[in-house]
Write a structure and sequence with these properties.
five-stranded parallel beta sheet, about 20% strand, alpha/beta, Rossmann fold
Length: about 120
């Protein structure tokens, strides 16, 4: 059994994660998917809720557990890692907005601080 933790606050990141997971998982397997959407004070307030809705819809056959957290993204993602102890972490390279490029500060800090595989999802 593998536990995947998707940390998101963007429908774009969540859609990319769904594409990645749907190609990789079999609904008959005993894998777990936990989606943690973080409401970043600097992002539009509905983004995290929309990201959870995309996860529920696109990953329905895998029955993901979903959570929405308020706070600073790195702090909330690290807390979710401690709580769920995932085998693999999925994150976006940046906030997922059209004007973002490269790997953002949240992704960089997560990559520097975690001790497990991290998939940085390509965005369309």
């Amino acid at each position: 059994m593998t536990t995947f933790l998707l940390a998101t606050n963007s429908v774009h990141v969540t859609a990319a994660a769904a594409d990645y997971l749907q190609k990789r998982l079999d609904p008959a397997d005993d894998d777990d998917i936990v989606v943690v959407a973080v409401r970043d004070p600097d992002a539009p307030s509905r983004d995290a809720g929309d990201a959870v809705n995309v996860a529920r819809s696109r990953l329905a056959s895998f029955m993901p557990a979903t959570e929405t957290k308020d706070g600073e993204p790195v702090t909330e993602i690290l807390a979710a890692i401690d709580e769920h102890d995932p085998d693999e972490l999925l994150i976006g390279p940046h906030r997922g907005t059209d004007d973002s490029e490269g790997v953002g500060s949240t992704a960089q800090e997560i990559l520097a601080r975690v001790d497990r595989p991290v998939i940085v999802l390509p965005l369309p």
